[in-house]
Design goal:
- Helix 1 packs antiparallel against helix 2.
- The protein has 66 residues and is an all-alpha fold.
- It has a domain at 13-58.
- The protein has helices spanning 13-29, 35-58.
- The chain starts with 12 loop residues before the first helix and ends in an 8-residue tail after the last helix.
């Protein structure tokens, strides 16, 4: 059986998603209006939404009913 190589993330998911969204927005600023710019902005919005959802799912207020 092949052993899996495990990688431990140094940053939490929310931080990585926020950083990715920021870098995508910076890259989009350099482009002229068009399809590529819109695609980068869409990915940035998706990363922001994913970060907020992850924070919400980890929140202590969200618990299973007993």
């Amino acid at each position: 059986m092949i052993k899996r190589r495990r990688f431990v993330q140094q940053d939490v998911l929310e931080e990585r998603l926020t950083a990715e969204a920021k870098s995508l927005r910076i890259e989009a600023k350099t482009l002229s209006p068009g399809v590529e710019k819109e695609a980068l902005l869409k990915k940035a919005r998706q990363a922001d939404v994913a970060a907020h959802m992850s924070e919400w799912l980890r929140s202590p207020g969200l618990r299973c009913p007993e």
